[in-house]
Model the fold of this input.
Amino acid sequence: MRIVRSVRALAASAAVLALAATACAAPGGDGAQGGSASGSGRPVLERGPLEEGVVSALDDPDAEGLPEPLIDTGLLVRGGPPADGIPALSTPGFEDASEVDWLEDAEGVLAVEVDGDDRAYPVRIMVWHEIVDDVVGGEPVSVTYCPLCDSALGFHRQVGDRVLDFGVSGLLYNSDLVMFDRQTHSLWPQIEGRAVAGELAGTELERISVQVLPWERWREEHPDGLVLSQDTGYERSYGSTPYPGYDDPDSSPHFLEGDADGRLPAKTRVVGLGAGGDAVAVPVEGDGAEDGEGLEGPAAFRLEVGGEPVVVLAEPGAASALDAGRVAEGRTTARTGAFRPEADGRGLTFAGGGDGFTDAETGSEWNIRGEAVGGPLEGERLEPVDKVDTFWFAWAAFEPDTTVHTDGPAGPG
Done:
């Protein structure tokens, strides 16, 4: 098994290097990261429109006339592709969920809901484009995915009077996707959700909830929802991954400056909560499982973040897009939710079991989205808590003072 894992880790390294080469190659062929749109008529993305009189941090984050950067810009690493070499989708098309026949049940989708507008962004597409600028429920949002950190996050992209349009900068910070906005060319590490260099340095984006769910489950629950179309205007090998073997537990992160925090294996998947001295990481994969999984069924983790109670719900979820050559064939990863454990004016104590979760106080049944689906509290919803699902190395790099929740999942009562 270890020999197989080592071979796959080497394959992952080769794949990442290949991405850098193909990003600058001629457009058109499957697997190329850069290039023009196909015959769908969707436009090729370009850098801009930079607002008049604004200095671009893409060219030099330390340029004269810009605010002082909030990070050591020497830690910004070029991952290979130039700005827009990995093309964000700014004019996404969608299909009715009932008409989608090209997704396999185990594949992950980034689930977003704003004001009753339910949308799914398949990981098989996100792994090639990383950012989708969209309008959901009447709100301008950006849905993002960083393969190197396995982090899926969503943001409101209206900042004051501006509606920002985001692209992939080609830079990495702590191995994480660095976005840039086309209006000011400020730089925004995805996990921070904050501009760290450029005209908008210090500005934070408001988060929206994103969960990675198996397509089969999302389709069952949202039969009238919309699904990001594969007709993106770019020729890509959707369904395959450009990062096979990257989440091998024995492999090292790419483009991380310095050593990974050694408290956990670097690519342990964790739920990150809080910030600064209140930051906590909840591992949802154990080192003991031979295949790296570690969740046999629903599990509830009870903890405090910043002095407030939080429950993290986790259960086996979608196939990893960073494992096998085909996304649908990847090993099972955890899907998670983080919530305030209270409803109907009372605190609740959660445990996992069977097909979901129950609270000890009323015996009500709950799902991974914090919705009571049976029992006295049916119809109640838990208040979500901001979280980051990512690899341990990335969370620890952004939150070096984080603690690790070591108690494991809670039992009943």
